[in-house]
């Protein structure tokens, strides 16, 4: 059966507060549509995942781009990765402050960087990526959460597990090329300069045409211990996308007590959106259908052309 092409996105593993759940689900649905339009038009999986992730970075409902959580000093520092399964090329940025779409910068790193430039910001300027004032990426909600987590006794990791919002996408195009992209503001009230799992190859994402592609979300320090994306692809060499995703997440839970979520595609167009957290907004576009959900076991389907 010909399943190609497909695009799957996530809006972060955790617990989405009731008042934000609708925005979170409608955001992943529109990002999936935006990325899938590229695949439908014959575009590449890399173009599609970057478009879908940039769409969510522009949406203040998520912890990526505009809406990112703040570090302990109350500043934005964002991480992103892209990986292309054909040549195993990748690009990543970490702790970038004044670009609206870190995922586009990560893509440029993959496409253009031969030797590492002195700093991400200089590279952005060289590539003609316009700077935005970091303040323009800070929302009232992220400032409120930052302040709350400065209070004595606050536990930012626990609080973040409650409300995440990292974004990611995986896709397979008509040629059977797979790609992944992930973007995040990181962990709430993180140390200045922290580099999380997202920009680390094999942790925040991995893509290999021979096996598939994965984008991950969850507590980065824990994801890195099990290199979650690569672990899932290892299981995919033996099994299907859902089983492999569940096995990777189950190992992370039993071995290091970590919760998280993933979106996964196989090179034939099989896909999965799986999580061990209470919720993860996700959406998948394939053929004429848009699939989406928020809670474990939830799976709604509508026509891809239905605007609602
Ligand atoms: N993995 C991200 C980080 O630790 C956070 C998340 O996925 O919500 O930076």
Kindly describe this structure:
The structure is a single chain. With 308 residues, this protein is of the alpha+beta class. The chain has a single domain (6-303), classed as 4-Layer Sandwich (Glutamine Phosphoribosylpyrophosphate, subunit 1, domain 1), CATH 3.60.20.30. It has nine helices and twelve strands. The chain has helices spanning 18-40, 45-57, 102-112, 120-126, 140-148, 156-162, 220-226, 228-236, 241-256, and strands at 6-14, 78-84, 89-96, 167-172, 178-184, 205-208, 212-218, 260-265, 271-275, 279-286, 289-295, 300-303. The radius of gyration is 17 Å and the shape is globular. The two termini are 29 Å apart. The mean pLDDT is 92. Bound molecules: aspartic acid. Residues 12, 63, 164, 166, 184, 186-187, 196-198, 217-220, 223 line the site of aspartic acid. Aspartic acid binds at residues 12, 63, 164, 166, 184, 186-187, 196-198, 217-220, 223.
């Amino acid at each position: 059966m010909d399943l190609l092409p497909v695009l799957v996105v996530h809006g972060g593993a955790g617990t989405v507060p009731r008042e934000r759940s609708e925005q979170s689900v409608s955001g992943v649905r529109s990002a999936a549509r935006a990325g899938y339009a590229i695949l439908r038009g014959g575009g590449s999986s890399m173009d599609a995942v970057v478009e879908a992730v940039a769409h969510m970075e522009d949406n203040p409902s998520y912890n990526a781009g505009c809406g990112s959580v703040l570090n302990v000093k109350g500043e934005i520092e964002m991480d992103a990765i892209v990986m292309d399964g054909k040549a195993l090329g990748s690009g990543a940025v970490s702790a970038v402050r004044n670009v609206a779409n870190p995922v586009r910068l990560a893509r440029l790193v993959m496409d253009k960087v031969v030797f590492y430039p002195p700093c991400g910001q200089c590279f952005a300027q060289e590539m003609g990526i316009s700077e935005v004032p970091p303040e323009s990426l800070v929302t009232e909600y992220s400032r409120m959460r930052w302040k709350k987590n400065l209070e004595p006794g606050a536990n930012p990791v626990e609080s973040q597990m409650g409300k995440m919002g990292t974004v990611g996408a995986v896709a397979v195009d008509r040629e059977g090329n797979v790609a992944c992209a992930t973007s995040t503001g990181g962990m709430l009230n993180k140390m200045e300069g922290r580099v999380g799992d997202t920009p680390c190859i094999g942790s925040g994402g991995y893509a290999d045409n021979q096996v598939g592609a994965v984008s991950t979300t969850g507590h980065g320090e824990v994801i890195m211990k099990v290199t979650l994306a690569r672990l899932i692809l290892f299981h995919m060499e033996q099994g299907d996308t859902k089983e492999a995703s569940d096995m990777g997440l189950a190992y992370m839970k039993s071995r290091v007590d970590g919760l998280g979520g993933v979106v996964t595609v196989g090179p034939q167009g099989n896909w999965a959106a799986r999580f061990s957290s209470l919720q993860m907004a996700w959406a998948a576009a394939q053929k004429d259908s848009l699939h989406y959900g928020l809670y474990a076991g939830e799976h709604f389907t509508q026509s891809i052309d239905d605007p609602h």
